[in-house]
Amino acid sequence: MSEHLAAEQARAREAHERLAEATAAHAAELERIRQDTQERITAAEAQRDSAIQAAESEKDAAIRAADTRAAQAETRAHEEIEQARAEARDLVQAAEDARDRALADAEQRRQEAQEVGQRAATAEARAEDARAETTRAREDAARELERVRATAAEELDRLRTDTAREREELRELLDDRARVLTEARDEQRQRAERAERDLDAARADLDRIRQEPGTAGTPGQPRRRRGSQPGESG
């Protein structure tokens, strides 16, 4: 009978150890998810200047993937914890039944059965502590995930604001350059028009001088300036 009780208690301890391992694995998975999410946000910030839109898309995808992994990990951990709890309850119940049978078999085994009951109570207290720790770990993970989400949302809003400001500054710069180019083009057009008018005037003066009597066909005679009288010297 003592060997049976010892076996039952060993199974109870093994179930509690599996519960602790599942709790630790759940906490490690949540920490890995938090680190993975932080790394993705950092990578999105590093790529902000070169590809803002691509960084936003990558960040959104990272957040969605982290949410999905967190939900899956929480579901798996919850299932494992529930299974461990059920096994622990069965083992504790079996231990209590064995204790009762031992008390009924002989009074001299009362002390031993009482000690078994105390060990079972200790195991139950440890299981309760493990459940409480699991609950705290889940709450901490949920708060951390919410903080990461809020940080990502704030960064996304800031990136959008910076993008809008940079676009506005670029638009103003392009408008200024277009205005300067327009003014330069207009000035060049005006200069060309003036040069063309001056050229036309010079050609007209040249034609008029050539058509004046006594000018064409008299080589060596100085050309009379426009508006001067005969006999006047230059």
Quick overview of this protein structure:
Helix 1 (2-46) packs parallel to helix 3 and helix 2 packs antiparallel against helix 3 (110-211). The protein has helices at residues 2-46, 52-105, 110-211. It is mainly α and 234 residues long.
Give the mean pLDDT: 80
- What fraction, in percent, of the residue positions are helical? over 70%
Main sheet characteristics? none
Q: Report the C-alpha radius of gyration, rounded.
A: 48 Å
Q: From the helix content, strand content and strand pairing, which structural class follows?
A: mainly alpha
Based on Cα principal axes, name the global outline: rod-shaped
Q: How many DSSP H or I helices?
A: 3
Q: H/E order of the elements?
A: HHH
Number of strands: 0
Strand content: under 5%
Unreliable residue stretches: 216-234
Instruction: Report, as a whole number of angstroms, the end-to-end distance.
Output: 148 Å
3D structure, described in words:
The chain is 86% helix and 0% strand. It is mostly helical and 234 residues long. The chain has a domain at 2-162. Helix 1 runs antiparallel to helix 2 and helix 1 (2-46) runs parallel beside helix 3 (110-211). Mean pLDDT is 80; it is low at 216-234.
